[in-house]
């Protein structure tokens, strides 16, 4: 049937069309069915909203993106017909039924998400089915390639390409710029793309942007990689595996990250930059994505098997994550701690050790023997700092950057121990919640300095951790929260007395 | 933070709020997180849209229903804060993880769907998890009660209350008015609520509304039940288990109907009218929801066990569904066939037999011996027709209604056999697709008369089935489809020759 186009509020950013119930009856469609809209310049099948009063009979209320797609302006006549669901919907149902999907099905689903052909309902069902029923390694390899194919790739004029990825989940993990700088100083090319925090208090890009801009084009990343040998840019600014960013909007409110989606997404992004050698850091411990060594070994096996299928040499580092890495949590605090290590500070040991061990593994993958020792040497001699500053300048930052410049929050308060004993536990998730209440990662100065860590002796009145904020209201709110949660847990040597 | 209310397009019928990215950063929320909006007259937590340009910093773009809920008008200042997800989201994740939910969790989910507290993303994930991981009978019993509690109930001044439900899936199943009329004529009270077609060509209410209005209030249903003893009204016009109608909008595009949702929804609706005795018709055969006798027996066992938990005496009839019941598919055609049987026509045998056997089981549940024989007698003597007309008049129809008045489509075409042999198969799903292409159920005259059914002898040139439509364009389109699909399959006695 022919309908007259009326534009929707520009708030609606997807492809949506809305018709009157009388027209829906004639077309034989119900809410959430699809209609094919054919305009002067194209056609598209979209999910339909059937709404009384929002639209008059004979009219089609159309979102601006859909108007553009079919080339129809206000008042234009378009042809509207019932449209069957895309094949992907059947494939999603097959995944719900626990079936293995073939390559065409997986590619179709990825393309349909990318092109906006699947509704929110369908994408949510897909991610839920993927979370529950999973994928085998063959499916995941196809999935990773499909994710790359929807976005841009970069081909470096140098090879091999080294890369490093942390699965995350441990607060204070500020090692990426150190690892990249050490390896690049040793002659490897490590063009690292990072992400911002999704549910954490500070992603790598959230603190690296205090050193230099992190938004660069893919072409510029290629230039920096080829000339300087290293980079630490924000992957979100480039069109790499864009479907991943689209599904995060659905995964985040559900609090799920399907294993298959995570593996395919990590490896898809590495395929996009043409990685030949990849080290994966698997933080393992209570409250992270990977709670036990057994689970971490299973991830390692999967990553390495997938690497073989995808032509990437992958090694994994299972790392300690029962408490934060270093002392600082939050953008400016982490940036300062990271810079201090590059400037030659021999503290905190956990940051230096993790960074040098990881860099060492990459150096050995690149044929440099005794990697960890060599990494410590590069750090100690200032070569790493020199390379770090070269990268900062290449990304558009200043060569004068110093740890003392980092804008840590002016408003601080200390959380004091009310008992003596030993730090028995440090609860990562509670620290992250407090850091977010302080304003991290959007308030750059907000965060926590954890002063007493596991095993430390504590006396009554000692400072356990210090809160930093950019404003007093957030500081007060977070202080209450910190005292209620008490993420640093003190016990005496006798955990409980049994007297009867 | 304080924001100024700006109203959204009235197209947005749910509870939605939209903020500028800068404000989202300050609040620490991402797209699809929740914010709590507090206005002069109330507060509500809603899923937030973060949109550039749609809204200015300092403003909150709010859907009309949300403005009403918090009592805020345009330009009004409201208080906005981050809000954690409702507990239901954690329960949905527990169901994804295959856990059994407790009563409080199930009640919370149902209430949150009812009150619009769950987003489309979350509801889709819930239904997908329910489809994959299911519920045990204890959970389903709680679920059924929770569904009733969100809606209205009716309490009849007479008891016991008898009810009848068909699981559907077989085309041409026009027996409900006959069963109700027979049982009511025998003195039982059968206040039947039916539905419209969801994916079929004709639901019970779709053809019954050619006899009389089907939209009545719950109070009027009570009066009709008490005085006339029977009714056949549209359940959708009453506020019975309304959550079920809300989730159908999500289930339908996914093409799923989770077993737990289906069982709870059927029994919830029966609890709402206070059913004491319930007969469930389980159409069993290829292409229906229940493909095998074994699956049908499993449904029977589940229904009967749930009946015990819920205080309803349930019996089940596993019925033949490999081809349509009777000959007619589509509103006016089914209405005509149904009326002809009530008027004393001894054809089609399958309609008469199924109606009388089902009515007989109900009569026996009501203490009337030799039910099927008694049912046939009530039909034969015209008592059923008399009671049928009483019900029609009580619902606001005319006492003069006759089968010859039914508005079957004026445009018809016959589909002719090109070979001789026997009807080997009749494909229900293809017949339904053709009937829908003809315009059913919204075009009342549209449908199919199946002339040759399974086992019938067919000669070249015989009419296999006849298409009816209210307009020529749909008739032509459906004819092409029918000839391509050929839902009535003819074979010789020799199905294939093996000569080598």
Based on helices, strands and strand pairing, what is the structural class of chain A? alpha/beta
Helix content of chain A: 40-55%
Shape of chain A: globular
Strand content of chain A: 15-25%
Radius of gyration of chain A: 26 Å
Count the beta strands of chain A.
18
Mean pLDDT of chain A: 93
The biggest beta sheet of chain A, please? 6 strands, mixed, barrel
List the total number of helices of chain A.
18
N- to C-terminal distance of chain A? 85 Å
Low-confidence stretches of chain A: none
Oligomer: homodimer
- Widest β-sheet, arrangement of strands of chain A: 1-5-2-4-3-6
Largest inter-chain contact set: A-B, 49 and 49 residues
Short summary:
The structure is a homodimer of 500-residue chains. Chain A is α/β, with parallel strands linked by helices and 500 residues long. Chain A is built from 18 helices and 18 strands.
Explain how this protein is built.
2 copies of one chain form a homodimer. Chain A is an alpha/beta fold and 500 residues long. The first copy, chain A, has helices at 21-27, 64-70, 87-96, 103-114, 120-133, 137-149, 176-185, 204-208, 218-228, 242-254, 259-272, 293-310, 331-342, 349-365, 371-380, 383-394, 428-438, 472-485, and strands spanning 2-7, 17-19, 34-39, 42-50, 59-62, 77-83, 162-166, 190-194, 230-234, 277-284, 313-320, 328-329, 411-416, 421-426, 447-450, 457-458, 463-469, 488-491. In chain A, a hairpin with a 2-residue loop joins strand 3 (34-39) and strand 4 (42-50). The radius of gyration of chain A is 26 Å and the shape is globular. Chain A starts with a strand and ends in a 9-residue tail after the last strand. The model of chain A has no long low-confidence stretch (mean pLDDT 93). At the A-B interface, helix 3, helix 5 and helix 10 of A face helix 3, helix 5 and helix 10 of B.
